[in-house]
TrEMBL record:
Protein name: N-acetyltransferase domain-containing protein
Membrane-spanning parts: none
Domain annotation N-acetyltransferase: ranges: 155-280
PANTHER family hit by this protein: GLYCINE N-ACYLTRANSFERASE-LIKE PROTEIN, RE58324P
Pfam family membership, one: FR47
Matching Gene3D superfamilies: 3.40.630.30
One GO MF term: acyltransferase activity, transferring groups other than amino-acyl groups
Length: 280
């Protein structure tokens, strides 16, 4: 599909400009963390073809978008999904999105990846949010110390490869918005580990295209054996060593994940929402 260089309120950012956009986003941390690290990962590894846009009055109007917002949507249309950043105290800038009728078909559903809840609240003046999933962003400012724990002799830590990704994607809870192909590209470029018990994949964790850690899953029959915290500690340290700020998105009802990451020094920073937005 042809990439649109300019919309009504936004313009396409060239690759040469992206680092400077990231520099401006730093002043809006931690809220800008996910968008900032998406740019960072794109520049370092380009695991997916994202298109970044900023407001025409950037940086005075500090709002930016990237299309697609996720790697799988019903019609595989680049402008069908979006991720949005603006500071929560400037949520009125979201009106530039809801009036953006060149890049976005305002008569069709828009698939929104995890975005600050203040932005979503403003979007809901024009859209009805369906299939809402809330996720709290937890950030680790200081990577954990090395643990002395060792895996049992029949348990092996393995660097995951693309051929492992069918098993990972089949059990990934957000497989409706992230395609298997992006997992295959992630593990080829970014840290990704699995724990194998007697040759069977028991638990896994992958660094995402937005610099966070996602897909930390343990098969039910292998839970409560310490595999999850072993993987999380390993990946947290490796993500930080690569120059990223480790963070995770945890659903509020997921007490087990919150407890695990709290032990590693992760702290809650803000709330995000994922939704399908349908025009009112």
């Amino acid at each position: 599909m042809e990439i649109v260089p300019e919309g009504k309120n936004f313009r396409l950012v060239t690759e040469d400009e992206l680092a400077a956009v990231g520099d401006i986003l730093v002043q809006y941390m931690p809220e800008s963390l996910k968008f900032h690290q998406t740019i960072q990962t794109y520049l370092n590894n380009k695991v997916w073809d994202f298109n970044f846009y900023v407001a025409k009055n950037w940086p005075e109007d500090p709002i930016c978008l990237h299309f697609p917002g996720c790697t799988s949507t019903p019609n595989s249309h680049i402008y069908e999904s979006v991720t949005i950043f603006c500071p929560s105290e400037r949520a009125e800038l979201v009106d530039l999105v809801t009036s953006e009728d060149v890049l976005i078909d305002l008569t069709q559903p828009l698939y929104l990846n995890f975005t600050n809840e203040a932005i979503v609240d403003r979007l809901e003046k024009h859209y009805e949010a369906h299939e809402k999933i809330t996720g709290d962003v937890y950030v680790c400012d200081k990577p954990p110390e090395d643990a002395t724990d060792e895996l049992p002799p029949d348990v092996e830590l393995v660097r995951l490869q693309p051929e492992h990704m069918k098993a990972v994607h089949d059990l990934y809870p957000a497989s409706d918005i992230e395609c298997r192909e992006v997992f295959e590209k992630l593990v080829a470029e970014l840290p990704a580990y699995g724990i194998f018990v007697e040759g069977q994949l028991a638990a896994w964790m992958v660094q995402s295209y937005y610099g966070a850690m996602f897909s930390m899953q343990t098969r039910p029959e292998f839970r409560r054996k310490g595999y999850g915290i072993f993987l999380a500690r390993r990946l947290t340290k490796e993500v930080a060593a690569r120059g990223y700020k480790p963070f995770v998105v945890i659903r509020p009802e997921n007490d087990a994940s919150r407890s695990l990451y709290s032990k590693l020094g992760f702290e809650k920073r803000f709330r995000t929402v994922r939704a399908v937005l349908r025009p009112r």
